[in-house]
Design goal:
By secondary structure, the protein is mainly alpha-helical. It has one domain. 82% of the residues lie in helices and 2% in strands. The chain is built from eight helices and two strands, in the order ααββαααααα. Strands 1-2 form a two-stranded antiparallel sheet. The chain is globular. The N and C termini lie far apart (83 Å).
Length: 245
């Protein structure tokens, strides 16, 4: 008798393919989250060291930011562009180095400023709130069957609008407006966390779980995306709930 399946796919093959893609996703996402946690640890460590020791004078002098502070603030933007535009050209070790440098500069500049501006107890408590909220949304992004692509596009547009509003408010100096913008940022980055996790999960299922350098570089880029979601969510919550010194 013929072994034809008349257009029907073997359920065993379907199940095998599903299992292999799920394993690939889990393997890829474990690399993504590992690098994200490493980046956050570097940022937190550098921020604490620079704020708790005399090194803070390199960043702030007489209560005012120094040129080094602005370098630490704006150099990461260039590093993000370097990672994004040079992904195909940079080697895997180079991508790792840029990511580590980015995390360190963010800690030296932005995070050390938060330790100086806000009470340490506020920084720690808001960090744990952020970790909990991030974890819930990451779990939602991983488990939901709803396609979040359309929500991602909406959130990006909302983010651009909030950034423009924040830039305008830098000149207006309106405290109520700044407070409202912080709530918008919380909503945006909460949603983007779920969206990015789902997107990276799908990418992991497609590219496989091999140790190829291109997969490693994609994991670094994914870690940067989630790192930025976490940091921006943390900063927005800190502006709302943080107690200034």
């Amino acid at each position: 008798m013929s072994n034809q399946n008349f257009g029907f796919q073997d359920p065993i093959e379907v199940h095998s393919s599903s299992v292999s893609s799920e394993v690939a996703s889990k393997t890829f996402m474990s690399r993504v989250f590992s690098w994200m946690f490493i980046g956050l640890a570097i940022t937190g460590f550098m921020g604490y060291i620079f704020s708790a020791t005399g090194l803070s004078t390199v960043i702030f002098s007489a209560g005012h930011p120094t040129p080094v502070f602005y370098i630490c603030m704006f150099a990461p933007f260039a590093l993000v562009l370097l990672m994004g535009m040079g992904m195909n050209r940079l080697s895997y070790p180079a991508m790792v180095g840029v990511f580590v440098l980015y995390s360190a500069l963010t800690g030296m500049g932005l995070m050390s400023a938060m330790f100086i501006i806000y009470q340490a107890s506020s920084v720690y408590s808001v960090f744990f709130i952020t970790a909990g909220l991030f974890g819930v949304m990451a779990f939602l992004g991983w488990t939901t069957n709803t396609d979040l692509t359309k929500f991602g596009s909406l959130l990006v547009m909302l983010l651009i609008g909030a950034m423009i509003a924040a830039l305008v408010n830098m000149f207006m100096g309106s405290a109520p407006m700044g407070y409202a913008i912080s709530f918008i940022f919380v909503a945006v980055f909460t949603g983007l966390t779920a969206y990015d996790v789902q997107k990276l999960k799908n990418i992991g299922a497609q590219i496989g779980s091999s140790g190829d350098a291109s997969v490693g570089k994609m994991a670094i880029w994914g870690a940067l995306s989630l790192y930025l979601d976490f940091i921006n969510l943390f900063l927005a919550l800190l502006r709302i709930f943080g107690n200034r010194r």
